[in-house]
Design a protein that fits this description.
Layout lengths: L1 H8 L13 H26 L7 H21 L1 H4 L8 H45 L12 E4 L2 E4 L3 E7 L2 E6 L6 E4 L3 H7 L6 E5 L2 E4 L5 E5 L2 E6 L2 E6 L3 H10 L1
Antiparallel strand pairs: 1-2, 3-4, 3-7, 4-5, 6-7, 8-9, 9-10
Length: about 250
Amino acid sequence: MTFFFNYAFEPFNVEYSEHKMSYFWVSIIHSTTPTVILFTIYIIGKSFKLEDKWNIVKEVILISTFFIIVGLVQFLIRDIIYDNENNWSLHYLYEEIRNTFLVGTLFVTILIPINFNRLNTKHSNNANTLNIAINDISSATNQIKKSININDFELDIDQFMFAKSEGNYLEIYFNKQHQNKELIRVTLNNLETLLKTYPNIIKTHRSYLVNCNYIEKIEGNAQGYRLQISRYIVPVSRNLIANFNLRMKRL
């Protein structure tokens, strides 16, 4: 998109006399630079898996940082493209960063809504498929033990709906008319380890562990899924959707 935009429309002043190569190759270089940087950021980001903690502010910071890096690299490679004794001036540094923000903002304005709609449609369709299968999921708790002890607290697996992390504590929600919530001192990771032999217990978010037998409805949006469990809404984050889909399919 960047190549065709630059090559076809020439949005900025073009001094052909300064080019060390044809404008075609100048456009190729300018469009390749952000591609390489974006791919590098993608690879680095994959190793952190921060989606559960993501928000709009962090998104804006990431995009702005990306634009600044692209502008800096475009400035640093000017000597490869242009025959101009002022290549290393602050004027051209400002110009490269400004141009990157102008073009980048245009594409972001186009691409973010498209990607939002793509994710929303994909997750909504998957959620509809899972909703059809919810009623067919029989109890998967036919284990030898129907309860486990956690720090002198007995957890009834059949009544367990979901757990929500609160620091070093967990809010445990049960399918009971009276006192349907308990607060215990244990981390979500520890509870997940204790319940790993129960296939119907799935981690859906960095803060939630869910008993799939109590899921009443699944809704999809651009951020992932929203599970209806009794009167509560529990999220499924995007980076855990693939595992959630696989586990639900097995059930």
